[in-house]
Amino acid sequence: MENTKNSGSLDTLNLKDTLLVSARKISNGKLSLEFAEIIKSGDRAVSALTLLNASDARFSGKPRRAWVTAEPVDASNLFNINFGDDGDWIMTERGEIMELNILNPAHNGSRFRLQINETTVGTQYQLDNIESAAKRRGKDGEFITHEGNYVFSNTEVVMANDVDVVKHTYLTSDAQSIAQVEETEDELVEVTDY
After folding, report:
1. For 143-184, how does the pLDDT look when each residue is reduced to its tens digit (9 = 90+)?
2. Nearest to 58 by CA among 139, 141, 137
3. DSSP string covering 67-134, please?
């Protein structure tokens, strides 16, 4: 596996492919590497709405993102890219950025992959920012809970070879009171699931 710049893009990213999107210079001389991967949970039902609107970008799966802090010299050696001050950096409103777009970045026969770990134990940042950090049903929907607790979805970058299965941790959501209508032969009966 070779790490080749501009070998992929967010627009053409497929399920189970990973993209090393970019590097950004951060404090203390370090880098922040941005990874993206489209992740679909195999144990969750496929929505008919998603299938019937597959050509509408608003319904397509958006890549999950994760950021990893790195030493420039180590990242340069691992990816064979010059992350030094004389590298291909461009100045943006977010600071100095290097566009990479490396499809399925790898090292020593293993690929960089994203892993989702849901938990009810938030970091201090998550606890201080419940409104934006806890999972919701839609952008401004109700909070999703597990055993009455807020759920936080954390994404980390892990190494996996082609035979490794990346194991995601999804918590079971507390059931919502959903009014459903069941049709019988003679009448409509309202049923509430808990």
Report:
1. 999 999 999 999 999 999 877 778 899 999 998 644 333 433
2. 139
3. EEEE-HHHHHHHHT---STTSS-EEETTEEEEEEEEES-EETTEEEEEEEEEES---HHHHHTHHHHS
- CA atoms in the 13 A half-sphere facing the CB of 186: 0
In tens, the pLDDT along 79-100 reads 999 999 999 999 999 999 999 9
If one counts every other C-beta atom within 10 angstroms of the C-beta of residue 104, the result is 19
Tens of pLDDT, residues 48-69: 766 677 666 666 668 999 999 9
Alpha-carbon distance of 129 to 110, in angstroms, equals 35
Give the span between the Cα atoms of 71 and 50, in whole angstroms.
40
Q: Give the three-state DSSP class for 48.
A: helix
Q: Hey, what are 132's tokens? A: 């934006």
Whether the model clears a pTM of 0.85, i.e. scores above it, the answer is: no
Distance of CA 10 to the CA centre of its chain: 12
67 closest CA partner among 18, 14, 31: 31
- The two structure tokens encoding residue 62: 């958006």
Domain ranges of the chain: 1-107, 110-194
**In this structure, what are the phi and psi dihedrals at residue 60, rounded to the nearest 5 degrees?**
-80, 155
Residue 57 and residue 40 in contact, taking contact as beta carbons nearer than 8 Å: no
